[in-house]
């Protein structure tokens, strides 16, 4: 590898001190990016290399493009209709800026091939790729409707329910990345905006445009000395990074990835730790007032403040410890791969459920008729036989649908408010609503319930009553 001679004899080893407050900020407005990602993540250190040129909608006989639904550093994503298979799809089209560049076109199609090769429920299926009738490179993929993890963390209330849900999302991200690692593929841009949570709770890891297949071909990187970027503008830094072929999003990058030394599955492990860090603390590992400062912190592995934020959050110590292991500055101190993290987080979540199951017995000893475990997102997890006796449905029918579907329409909103009360950790007593039985009749049921928000679990006992007054 050729080293860019920018820093004389300054060592390439990271300096863990963070003296940036003493450095004057001579950076220009953010204009550069070393990550092909969404526009909304500028605060995380994403800035586009080039201003986007005006681009016409690709013309294709098979696909009728409706509207733009997303944008990355290299492509625009559209909602479209596939006339061959009569289905909605997403179409990604290479940005006009890059359409005349052979290397960019190759990388674009490589993203499609990589995504198609990795057949996993957490990776969006690719259906087709090629050149549109008007000469624009594209590929078609499964349309995933939902919100990014970044959007979920910004918009949902900060409750124990959300924390439990986010940990479940994180576990599924780990499982997806573990599958990729088992196929010698690293993602290299793991972050909340690249995780999509679908309308039915499905989790997809998106945007494999920066991924690399280890061992198949040499990965050319040009090491950069962190000290070399102390007194240059963001625009100058962007040009250096572009020439070095360093890739990723600085706020979430492993130190060795940011410095351009090399990449490995443990670079993704750091990315998973960065994702978990933001779930726990609300912030990525690296922050700064400019792209240059964020990048320097990443390249130096300046993580002391990050560790302090993790220690100060109110999460379970076991989860905090896992995040800190993943964010270790030295590669060998991190878990070996995503599979190791997936096992650990799954074990943690399952142990939480086992605790809930043990607690269930205490609730079932009460003398009410109906007993259940439910989730705070509106599903029965387990019901006793009295539910079938009273309502006439099988256990599988009750568990497979949101319980709101069984409610009288007039009782839906008050039931949602009651679930909100439980999500805050408060109990409810003598709450009444009407459930529709299998014969179409409504039965008044009175509930007493307690939740364990961090486990996304409700324990409830109930009995049939004559009306809301019992």
TrEMBL record:
Upper lineage: Bacteria, Pseudomonadati, Planctomycetota, Planctomycetia, Pirellulales
Keyword Nucleotide-binding (UniProt): yes
EC class: transferase
EC number(s) reported in the record: 2.7.11.1
InterPro entries in alphabetical order: Kinase-like_dom_sf, PAS, PAS-like_dom_sf, PAS_fold_3, Prot_kinase_dom, Protein_kinase_ATP_BS
Domain Protein kinase span(s) in chain numbering: 63-349
Gene giving rise to this polypeptide: prkC_38
Comp. bias (Basic and acidic residues): 35-48
Name of the protein: Serine/threonine-protein kinase PrkC
Residues that bind ATP: 92
Claim: Nucleotide-binding is one of the keywords in the record: yes
